[in-house]
Amino acid sequence: MESAGASSSPVERELKLLDPQGLAAEEVEQALRDLGARVITRGEGLQTDIYLDTPRGDLARAGAALRVRRAGQEGRAVATFKGPGIVDEALYTRLEVEAPWETSSLPASAAALPEALRAHVEPRVWTRPLEPLARIATRRHRARIVLDTGVAELAVDRVEATAAGAEAPAFCEIELEVLEGAPEPFVAIAGALAASRGLEPS
């Protein structure tokens, strides 16, 4: 999720499925149509996420995360805090707070963050420095998924990650973020998609 201004502490409801086969986005979209969803393709692009934490991992130990995401080479950047949440198989429910990040450098401390994020990060890290933890480059295909009961954002991702100077194996992931309505119908359709395409909770 991204917004033009600081977020008002929304709750993120997101289903994440690991795709060992690397299905084409068009196949995922068609599978969802076959399951009764209306699919509106929104396009594809590149995004880069830099995850930050203190040297001793205060955010990770608290079950939280802080990232700066930039879309494309010259795209605007957004800083995001994700709080501890509840994981029920593939469904993640957690606090997500966002604000524009206006500089090309990364925040070196909680004090450098926009106030909406600082309020959540600073109590967990105090004055300890922030440093890059991992870099994740994603080619993301996006679509809007519409059911009679609600709306979700589909992301079909091809992901490459680097952490501690070492490259992790590339992987593919499918996400459904519930934007409107209850999550249960999307949990059901994600389960049916997983069963028909050999996907696993991520």
What would you note in describing this structure?
The protein has 202 residues and is α+β, with helices and mostly antiparallel strands. Helix content is 19%, strand content 49%. It contains 4 helices and 10 strands. It has helices spanning 25-34, 58-61, 115-125, 184-197; strands spanning 11-18, 38-53, 65-71, 77-88, 91-101, 131-147, 150-163, 166-167, 171-180, 200-201. The chain has an 8-stranded antiparallel barrel. β4 and β5 form a beta hairpin. The protein is globular and about 50 Å long. It starts with 10 loop residues before the first strand and ends with a strand. The model is unreliable at 1-9 (pLDDT under 50).
Number of helices: 4
**Fraction in helix:** 10-25%
Global mean pLDDT: 94
Strand arrangement within the widest β-sheet reads 1-5-4-3-2-6-7-9
User: Overall 3D geometry?
Assistant: globular
Parts with pLDDT < 50 across at least 5 consecutive residues:
1-9
Give the amount of beta strand, in percent: over 45%
For the termini, the CA-CA separation is 18 Å
Could you give the topology of this structure?
Blueprint: E1 11-18, H1 25-34, E2 38-53, H2 58-61, E3 65-71, E4 77-88, E5 91-101, H3 115-125, E6 131-147, E7 150-163, E8 166-167, E9 171-180, H4 184-197, E10 200-201
Antiparallel strand pairs: 1-5, 1-9, 1-10, 2-3, 2-6, 3-4, 4-5, 6-7, 7-8, 7-9
